DNA sequence: TAAAATTAGTTAGCATAGCTAACTACATTT
DNA sequence: AAATGTAGTTAGCTATGCTAACTAATTTTA
């Protein structure tokens, strides 16, 4: 790890940056899992629900693509969410398809869970200096875009 | 989402930054799961193995703490790793405990998997400008430290 | 020092979540 | 009309999370 070409404190070597980001992401999600347990919903259901809440209604197949799981897996995740009253099915023109939509309860529960997650992280960011937060804020947006483009 | 006080393109509002980092982490790990499947080892086993490879031998309880799972869960993860010949158990003074250590095979497999993960991310970073990578490199280190302190 | 309490790890049993293969039902193409 | 393709489900496997209850070893205490 770390070849340290190190002309500066940081580096622009993609592998070295990737390594740090990778490490950060692992540790972040490891911690956030804890706040998620408070929601009483499993991680896959929570994640699928978040797509419906933040991006609107989707068919099962679209949801499976978005979550990068196979249709049978999404079929079961959706069954669980429906059983818990967090989402609803709507018939469509094409009778093979169905539109899935978050219910009011589902939306509320998701937003509370998301708040818990984000608040935990935000609290840690408060220990940084104003300048550091400024830099991190500038770059967080860029980072999110790069990663979504993977 | 996004109250957008927005005095600048970025912000120093911890909640807003946290929100973006959260989003980035989710999308990153969602993608990296794909490269991990090539290793033929489950995510929990891979993660536990990485602790043994990068931080040295640990008892089962220490490993459970590090991975934030309960002892019975780690007990089974360890059983799987041992069955696949990726780790080894060593007796200790206290006969209730056992030290777990990665085998040569385990170390090799883990490092290859890690390389696949990191390379995939590094490839995406190559689409950034030199300046952007420089900024990201400067901040990645800070980010990793903050998150580990959660 | 014998008994009680604590600690480390396992076993059993449950739920969720990932997969492939095989199926049903509907839609489209030929 | 028949063949092909597409959307989603069912069945059955493995892995991963939990709690409760257990065994064995160690430490504390009466």
Describe this entry's structure for a reader.
The structure is a homodimer of 150-residue chains. With 150 residues, chain A is mainly alpha-helical. The first copy, chain A, has six helices and three strands. A three-stranded antiparallel beta sheet of chain A has the order 1-3-2. The longest helix of chain A is centred in the N-terminal third of the chain and has 24 residues. The N terminus of chain A is likely disordered. At the A-B interface, helix 1, helix 5 and helix 6 of A face helix 1, helix 5 and helix 6 of B. Chain A binds a DNA duplex (30 and 30 nucleotides) through helix 2 and helix 4.
Keywords:
homodimer, 150 residues, mainly alpha, 3 strands, 8% strand, disordered N terminus, DNA-binding
Oligomer: homodimer
Structural class of chain A: mainly alpha
Largest sheet of chain A: 3 strands, antiparallel
- What is the β-strand count of chain A? 3
Q: Helix content range of the residues of chain A, please?
A: 55-70%
Number of helices of chain A: 6
Strand order of the largest sheet of chain A: 1-3-2
Through-space gap between termini of chain A: 23 Å
As residue ranges, the low-confidence spans of chain A are: 1-8
Average predicted confidence as pLDDT of chain A: 88
């Amino acid at each position: 790890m770390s070849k340290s070409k190190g002309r500066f404190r940081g580096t622009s070597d993609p592998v070295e940056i990737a390594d740090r980001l990778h490490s950060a992401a692992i540790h972040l999600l490891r911690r956030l899992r804890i706040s998620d347990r408070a929601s009483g919903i499993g991680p896959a259901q929570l994640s699928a629900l978040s797509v419906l809440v933040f991006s609107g209604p989707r068919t099962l197949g679209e949801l499976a693509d978005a979550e990068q799981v196979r249709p049978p897996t999404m079929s079961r995740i959706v069954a669980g969410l429906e059983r818990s009253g967090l989402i609803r099915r709507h018939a469509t023109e094409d009778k093979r398809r169905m539109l899935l939509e978050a219910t009011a309860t589902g939306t509320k529960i998701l937003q509370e869970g998301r708040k818990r997650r984000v608040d935990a992280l935000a609290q840690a960011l408060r220990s940084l200096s104003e300048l550091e937060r400024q830099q991190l804020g500038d770059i967080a947006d860029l980072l999110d875009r790069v990663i979504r483009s993977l």
